Amino acid sequence: MPKTLNIIIYPDKTLRVKCIEIKKVDDKIRRLISDMELTMKEKDGVGLAGPQVGQTIRVIIINTKDGPLAMVNPKITKKSWRKESGEEGCLSIPDFYGSVKRHKKINVIYTDKHNKKIKLAAEGLFARVIQHEIDHLNGVLFIDYLPKKNLKDLPEE
């Protein structure tokens, strides 16, 4: 039975860790994925990354119209030259939003929860969420893209 996980809140140092690759998706990882899916739904998120729940491994969950999509070891293989700005927030930085410029289209390769390699093309909000969550795996937060003057309301790291 999946359980709700605690969300790590900024400025916790876990959010700045570069996550390690997962060698093989086993039952422990699949259980974590189920817990992350439930947590994302309950917290009304559009995405969730391992470090946000205290796991410094390369796993993200994206909320899609077809339900949650788990990506293990996701890598962006292609980015459009065109970018667009859009407002972003983060479950780990509650009640704080900012406009971030991201690639409009991306291609990504990842492993699914059955250890299958998947290639995917994404655009618009879907591409934005994937980029945001992959940033988490590299210790990057959306606030890193914002001008310093916009960060005065945030706690110090």
TrEMBL record:
Source taxonomy: Bacteria, Candidatus Falkowiibacteriota
Gene: def
Sequence positions that bind Fe cation: C90, H132, H136
CDD domains for the chain: Pep_deformylase (cd00487)
NCBIfam families: pept_deformyl, PRK00150.1-3
Reaction catalyzed: N-terminal N-formyl-L-methionyl-[peptide] + H2O = N-terminal L-methionyl-[peptide] + formate
Summary of the function given for this chain in its UniProt record: Removes the formyl group from the N-terminal Met of newly synthesized proteins. Requires at least a dipeptide for an efficient rate of reaction. N-terminal L-methionine is a prerequisite for activity but the enzyme has broad specificity at other positions.
Protein's name in the database: Peptide deformylase
Annotated active site: E133
SUPFAM superfamilies: Peptide deformylase
Gene3D superfamilies attached to this UniProt entry: Peptide deformylase
Class of enzymatic activity (EC top level): hydrolase
Pfam families xrefs: Pep_deformylase (PF01327)
Cofactor note: Binds 1 Fe(2+) ion.
Signal peptide start-end: none
